[in-house]
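Hi V.,

Quick status before I head out on leave. The structure for the redesign project is tokenized and pasted below; the design run finished overnight.
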């Protein structure tokens, strides 16, 4: 995925969806931030913000925060809308071997008992339908990646729904899209959300598959290229 971006310096993030930045012209402005998470380690003052510009004249804030380049040199995609786009692109390119060979891919399909929508539903000729829930991973602590970065009742619901799909004879996958160049392994953040951690352990035990793939970042002359391409380990409680 190629995104046209420009650099700025972060002043502060606030009100969940907004952040103030300093442009290269030294002008200060406000941009949209499509991320409801805690963004721990992804939004430190003076980090480099790479932002895109919308052509929609009706938008109050035309700039969108796409990627943070941290002071440590890491690239972090903080626009959570990109996770599903990147995974869908990788699926169509057959870059995710565990999920290749489908005959039909559907997005945002209603399912389950808790009024949910699955990110992707793949259909196969000679295999069970596969329900794929995508989660964006950006929390890096002590050289290790974690999900979630805040308590997530929505994520807990998704795990319950995935478990129900397995019980009904379908295949269910929790897909961690690792959008932080400094993360090479992923674990559940028990210290952040112990309820989610307990549910994930239960889900894994009954057959929900857990897959983690890392994004690759390339930046050249204002073109940011991001691709999901490298499988990395998910470390469960027994590892």
């Amino acid at each position: 995925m190629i995104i046209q971006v420009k650099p700025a310096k972060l002043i502060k993030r606030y009100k969940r969806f907004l952040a103030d930045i300093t442009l290269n012209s030294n002008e200060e402005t406000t941009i949209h931030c499509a991320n409801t998470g805690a963004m721990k380690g992804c939004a430190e003052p003076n980090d480099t913000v790479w932002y895109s510009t919308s052509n929609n004249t009706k938008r109050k804030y035309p700039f969108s925060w796409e990627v943070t380049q941290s002071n440590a040199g890491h690239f972090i995609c903080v626009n959570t809308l990109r996770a599903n786009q990147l995974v869908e692109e990788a699926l169509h390119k057959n870059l995710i071997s565990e999920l290749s060979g489908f005959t039909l891919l559907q997005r945002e399909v209603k399912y389950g008992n808790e009024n949910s929508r699955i990110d992707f539903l793949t259909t196969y000729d000679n295999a069970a339908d596969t329900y794929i829930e995508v989660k964006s991973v950006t929390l890096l602590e002590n050289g290790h990646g974690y999900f979630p970065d805040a308590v997530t009742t929505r994520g807990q619901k998704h795990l319950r729904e995935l478990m129900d799909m397995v019980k009904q004879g379908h295949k269910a996958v929790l897909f961690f899209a690792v959008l932080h160049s400094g993360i090479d392994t992923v674990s559940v953040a028990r210290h952040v959300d112990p309820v989610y951690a307990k549910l994930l352990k239960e889900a894994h035990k009954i057959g929900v598959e857990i897959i983690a793939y890392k994004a690759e970042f390339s930046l050249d002359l204002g073109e940011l290229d991001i691709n999901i391409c490298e499988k990395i380990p998910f470390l469960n409680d027994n590892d």
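Above is the designed sequence. The helical segments are 81-92, 153-167, 194-206.

G. will cover questions while I'm gone.

Best,
W.
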